[in-house]
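idk why but the lab printer keeps eating my pages so im just putting this in chat instead. protein + 4'-phosphopantetheine:
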Amino acid sequence: MRKVTAIYPGSFDPPTNGHLDLIERGSHIFEELVVAILRNADKTPLFSVGERRKMLEELTAHFKNVRVDTFDGLTVDYAAKVKAGAVLRGIRALSDYEYELQMALMNRKLRPDLETVFMMPAEQYSYLSSRLVREVARLGGDISGLVPEIVEQRLKAKLDPAYKLETRKVKAGKA
Ligand code: PNS
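predcted complex ->
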């Protein structure tokens, strides 16, 4: 069988346990997996690209065949740049299908030799999205179990001024 490099493109704002589940699954079937964060100037993200990259690097450090990168422009051009033969995307529910199908077929039109491979995350993550995690965290809801612990801490630090103050005090030995 051919050894294939795949890219896993996305916004990852923030990375969730669903993303991590997919990265692990992808790492088992591809020779190399590049987690590619879109640098999208149009959006106003919660976490900067640098912050997201740092989190994903920490979270994937134990996978020997996974690396993290950022890109802008077309996904197909980035895939060509890193010599990837496949794009990995997750499909959670039927509602994802239409958008993902459109993207996969447009990418195929742009670069016919690039395959999109869909994988399903574990069912406990089938309702999970970065957008919902941001919303629940912003409104003070419990996001434990939905995102890795370092992401939970960084979300709290970003959204809860009291938590930020407390962490600073602990660091300074004043708590
Ligand atoms: O995590 P997301 O926001 O669902 O990821 C969407 C992403 C980054 C995969 C998609 O927006 C994308 O590929 N953007 C790059 C620009 C591009 O290639 N557009 C044409 C896609 S058919």
